[in-house]
Design brief:
2 helices, alpha+beta, about 35% helix, single chain
Length: about 90
Amino acid sequence: MSLTETKEIDKIEVVQLGIIQVREATTIFKDGQFYARTYHRWSFTPGSDVSEMPANVQAVANAAWTPEVRQAYETFKAEQANRLNNV
């Protein structure tokens, strides 16, 4: 019996406020046949350090996180902090 494992980033999404969601699929093969798949997910807010992520994730971040998107996210965070402080 031979088990092999592959990992790949199979989904990168930019959602509201420029947040990037990344999904990595780990696929296990038994004797060359599909056996199982699991997922690991990360999310990154505008301006996060993505330097340890693969180049395709970094490219999406560089394209999505324009100065306007970063500013909108910072404004959103400030508004949320104000709401919490006024409760």
